[in-house]
């Protein structure tokens, strides 16, 4: 993520997270540290996984004090091991203590998503199918969680409602039919936006193809139904399957040959990756 994106999209969210944790002062830190003392602390992985969010971890401390220094020994997307030294952070001990929890919350959450995504993506290795995330993200965490999916080897579906047309069951119900919904979308949406239609049965598949949908999402259909649907589509639209897809059940979909599989579990069900800051100590001044 570049500095422009960070400033526009991420900084205000990180600041809000810091304000949530420090409403007036860090009374514990201020009790034991009455003045600035330079110290250092280690960032250590406590389990195997894929790291993601080091730039957010760094930014938390920079927003508190731009003099904090970092020495990273890995980068986002790297596989890390239990006990591995990931980074050394040096600066005002008060800042290291006050920013610790917020920085780790981001890093653990994002690394957990990257780790889970990687484990699912590994199951798709060798196939043409791309693994996609969804909009089932934590409020005000989407930019971080979707970034973590990419770090884990997955791909992003649309970022938000402005990013593309996805006609789901309730949109189709509002329009009156699949055909009407697609026609109305083609009339209204910018021509550069692809039109995706969520279908639940073979009749809807036929209607979506004939209406000229760009992508057809096979939602909560059995593998047998999806296989028949793919035959009906016959390359006239991209294919995506979705519906409670997890690491435990994705293998049943591998032989279908769909273009995309989307999984909300990548963001809403991934456990955190345990990471900690340890061995904090003051640096001795050089009195020579």
Q: Give the end-to-end Cα distance, rounded to a whole number of Å.
A: 42 Å
Q: Structural class of the secondary elements?
A: alpha/beta
The total strand number stands at: 12
- Average pLDDT, all residues: 95
The percentage of residues in β strands lies in: 15-25%
What is the H/E string? HHEEHEEEHEHEHHEHEHEEHE
List keywords for this structure.
alpha/beta; 288 residues; single chain; elongated
Description:
- With 288 residues, the protein is an alpha/beta fold.
- Helix content is 42%, strand content 19%.
- The protein contains 10 helices and 12 strands.
- The protein has helices at residues 3-21, 27-32, 54-64, 93-123, 142-151, 169-175, 178-188, 202-211, 223-233, 265-268; strands at 38-45, 49-50, 69-72, 79-80, 85-92, 130-132, 165-167, 195-199, 215-219, 238-242, 260-262, 275-282.
- A 6-stranded parallel beta sheet has the order 6-11-10-9-8-7. The chain has a 4-stranded antiparallel beta sheet with strand order 3-5-1-12, with helices on one face.
- Helix 1 packs across helix 3, helix 3 packs antiparallel against helix 4 and helix 4 (93-123) crosses helix 5 (142-151).
- The protein starts with a helix and ends in a 6-residue tail after the last strand.
A few lines on this structure:
With 288 residues, this protein is of the alpha/beta class. It is built from ten helices and twelve strands.
Give the helix/strand layout.
Blueprint: H1 3-21, H2 27-32, E1 38-45, E2 49-50, H3 54-64, E3 69-72, E4 79-80, E5 85-92, H4 93-123, E6 130-132, H5 142-151, E7 165-167, H6 169-175, H7 178-188, E8 195-199, H8 202-211, E9 215-219, H9 223-233, E10 238-242, E11 260-262, H10 265-268, E12 275-282
Parallel strand pairs: 6-11, 7-8, 8-9, 9-10, 10-11
Antiparallel strand pairs: 1-5, 1-12, 2-4, 3-5
